[in-house]
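thread: overnight batch results

M.L. [08:02]
morning all. the overnight job finished for the chain we discussed friday. pasting input first so we're all looking at the same thing
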Amino acid sequence: MRSDEEIKRDVEAEFRWDPDLEEADIAVAVKNGVVTLTGFVKSYKDKWEAERAAKRIHGVLGVVNDLEVRLPGIDEKPDPEIAREAVAAIKNQLPFSYEKIKVVVRNGWITLEGDVEWNYQREAAERAVRRLTGIRGATNLIQVRPTARPLEIKRQIEEAFRRNAEIDANRITVETDDGTVILKGTVRSWAERQEAERAAWSAPGVTKVINRIVIRP
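M.L. [08:03]
and the structure it wrote out:
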């Protein structure tokens, strides 16, 4: 088990190394493997990148992201302009399904609503707006509502685990209830736990993933 001090040092080093994370005022605290990020960043993109960078570190069991977005004056935009840019960005990513997604903007915070058939559409919509300038945050309330049999969902997820070199499929069990997937078992790192959840979400018919996998390095 890695010490909190070792994890803290590596998270700070990852921030300096990550080319996608611009210079920011971030304080890192670690207790029992849980990383807490506080301070200020200049964009929502940087807040998201900081969280992602922290999750990559070996030994991290959880991340609390309390970073505050403080936009430079030049990046400030009115909500209607942000909404128009968000709709255009989603349309560019999902030209055949963007009309199923509704964009709501309040005080620079984007909320995505609507129903889609595949989880990749849900993720693509959030990815499209995440890097827009002038936003303070994003909440993804898009629901995945496909039709697929639970046994078929279970089979496809288990096959995906076996194909994935980053996942030890023998240590993870998959349970399904309609479109809900429950993952159980143990993995060696936070990254492997996240990869298992990502793989589960990629299966057609999945509407919810409950990740109960435990990290045991």
